Hints:
This protein is mainly β. The chain is built from 1 helix and 23 strands. The strands form 7 sheets. Strands 1, 14, 16, 17, 20 and 21 form a 6-stranded mixed β-sheet that branches. It has a 4-stranded antiparallel β-sheet with strand order 5-6-9-10, with no helix packed on it.
Amino acid sequence: xxxxxxxxxVARFLSAGGVYGVTPGTYLGTATSTLTSIDNSKGxxxxxxxxxxxxxxxxxxxxxxxxxxxxxxxxxxxxDHVDFPGSEVADLGTEFWTPQTGKWSETAAQTHxxxxxxxxxxxxxxRVLVGGHAPIGTFYGPPSDGPAQLGLAPAYLxxxxxxxxxxxxxxxxxxxxxxxxxxxxxxxxxxxxVEKPGDISSIRLVRNGSYTHLINGDQRTVELNIVKRDxxxxxxxCRATPTCRRGRTCCSPTAPRPRARSRRCPVRCSSTPSWLxxxxxx
Length: 282
């Protein structure tokens, strides 16, 4: 899911790679990517459109939604490992999707081959932790050195991790976050104190992820509206969008239901030392 913006009724989802054909698909990886939009203001009307092509076919890649709105793709194979374990070639390359252009560009390569059961998750400091590779035994038998000797993906578990720094960490000095309100309510204003408020272009809440089998159901970014600036801080507003049962308003569809007499739905937030994100849990 791409970043949600306050007041925008459209949720956007980016998918990339996979195999050709509909479920259960075929064998070779595809380089296509698709942007799917769901418009809540029009009865959840869903539309899809192509969004650039990867530099090569990729199967079972891990996509990480970054705080700036881009998506980073890592750890892939050129063929479906589950069809013929040990027959795929691991692609060490990584790619970055830019939302402004809808195109993919190549980024720093990995040092370890990771295909099946790989993982990638955004860390509080803005970097990405990559790990995994737990393949099925070679051709559904015992693992062997044969595939690696032929230039194919390794047949053994990989316990290592690698940390990647996305492009935004090289844009220059990062704004220093001094303080932020530890709790906010719907339709309330949150104050973020920073050294140079004029340099802040947006404030976004980033939820901690929980990753398994290519799915990160908790991966979510919400951009708040900036309503005021002063010499020491930037103020944003947490608008209510979804409606709970009985007409009560909540900050998010997964937030706790408020009591009958209360229209406010609290969201507890724990800010990180990084200006890039605040980790919020409902």
